[in-house]
Specification:
The structure holds 2 protein chains of 2 kinds. By secondary structure, chain A is mostly helical. Chain A is 71% helix and 2% strand. The chains are: A mainly alpha, B mainly alpha.
Chain lengths: 352, 295
Amino acid sequence: MQPAGTFNMSYSQDMAIVRTRFQWGAFIGFLIFSFTLPLYAGDYWLGLINIIAITIIAVLGLNILTGYCGQISIGHSAFVAIGAYTAAILADHLGFSAWAALPCSILAASLIGLIFGLPALRVKGFYLAMTTLGGWFIISWLIPHGDNLGIPTGGVYGLAVARPTLGNIVINTETEFFYLIMVFTLVAVFLAKNLTRTRIGRAFVAIRDNDLAAEVLGINLSYHKLLAFFIACAFAGVAGWLKVYYLGYAHMDHYPLMDSIWWLGMLIVGGLGSTMGAIYGTAFLMLLWEGAAVLSPEIGKAFPGVALQIFASSTQILIGLVIALFIVFEPRGINHRWQIFKSYYRLWPFSH
Amino acid sequence: MEEFLRYLTTGISLGLIYGLVALGFVLVYKSSRILNFAVGEFMLIGAYVAWTFRVLLHWPIPACFVMAIIAAIIMGWTIERVAIRPLIGQPILGVIMMTLALMVIIRGVVLLAWGAIGKAYNPPLFPGTAIHLGDIVIRQEYVWGLVVVVIMFIIFTYFFRFSRAGLAMRATSEDHQLARGTGIRVKTVFSQSWIICAIVASIAGVILASSQGVDIRLANVGLVAVAVVLVGGLESVPGAIVAGLIIGVAEQMAKGYIDPWVGGGMETVFAFGIAIISLLIWPYGLFGLRRIERI
């Protein structure tokens, strides 16, 4: 729905994401705001935003795979772990710098993702969901036991990595990491948003909606399904690379199975198959998580006998309930609500 | 040889439990085309309820089983009615996500109600003395588990062959529209299949917990059951049992013979490794239906 009085005079205008002067103003304002954020936000908020932004990169990849191409992956955090461990191993044992490790992380994550994407050529739906789950179990076993198999993963102790450097600057504080992560997140959003508007993105949507029909239309199914896995895991590789340098430590406990489940939940809550939805969903659920983690000790004080149990379980129950309620009452997610709201105020006094 | 036999017997008794959980899985899938990832959490509820009545309240053993079954019925019915029925006709990802959300919620509720510390059946549910069968020593819990599982299988075979509800369930799994045409209430069948899944899972949970102790990690068996279903085929009841035995035995063998070489933890990996490889060879499982699709 276009605002009244806005007309498209050319195809490039019709395809533009940022259309009107107001939108350009808001967009540039947002960029300025986000890059000056360390001036007004403390380390607590910056740290929270950093983690959310890293998660957004991983969820954007998952959104391309699951939201656009329809291939369900319940083991995505394993691919993030691959990206993280590749960087950590290269940095620790071969002396790679952070920047030299980045392409290796991306490549390793995508290639491993490709391997676990192979069953997608023969099976789909539930079966694929289960194989990716199996992929998580295999990788999560492989990493702590890697030392016995000749991969120097540091076993159950994990690997520490040095801080990344950019020229003479050592990226160390929350603010410095904020700029690093923000640049990567913006590039990831740009790529994800535009990928879905290309021929490949449209082929993904066709495969999601009906893969047989897509094949009849001349889309190479196996190529595009594997490509979706490749791209999604490349995003996961970047997220893993950022996460390992941000945390300064690689350990399989940072990439639990539950993470991949939460990421699917974030996609559902935000709106499946929309780039903005992935961002809204991630930010919403992670802020909710943080809020619950801050509040649950307070609730625990009210019921001192079971304080520990409340602390351990309240976030899980709350987030699980929110996801379940979204699936039942708004399966198209926050993004859909936001679109409805926008078209409502654009037409406002004349809504018919 | 003695070692081999020990792994074999443990594998078979574990495999039958996996088969039982997978059976619940398959039933729900057959009737409503929904994969229930929360099945491991159903086991958890059964195990904790039985533990509460046995250890805290000292009820007799059969009464504990009955209470676990009652809890399962309430849980299965509520979940189907509240969470699953509104999703009829939704895309599969929504349904998968709902069962994953249920998994998280039930885990949270269990943590809230019983805490995170593992608990043991004390007094034990089954007598703890080992049974000597020639050279092999078997834990008595496994034998009792075996008996209960076999009884369950007999009951289910009878139920699906001769009872009206069982026949209605089989008809529904063939075709929803046709089943409706013959006067079967499809929604009731959905509800029944969830209840049966919950009962089967919680009995499996009680049996497994009696030998391993009640712990939140018990729920991971639900994920192994996923691998079992993958090997056996989503639509096949005998497939669930055969694949349960295959995975159970293979897992114990891997634990016994490969673990010392690689430093432990092979069980789950091996189960999923078998599942993925078998999926590449038989995409629809050993006994699954091969569907011909049309546009």
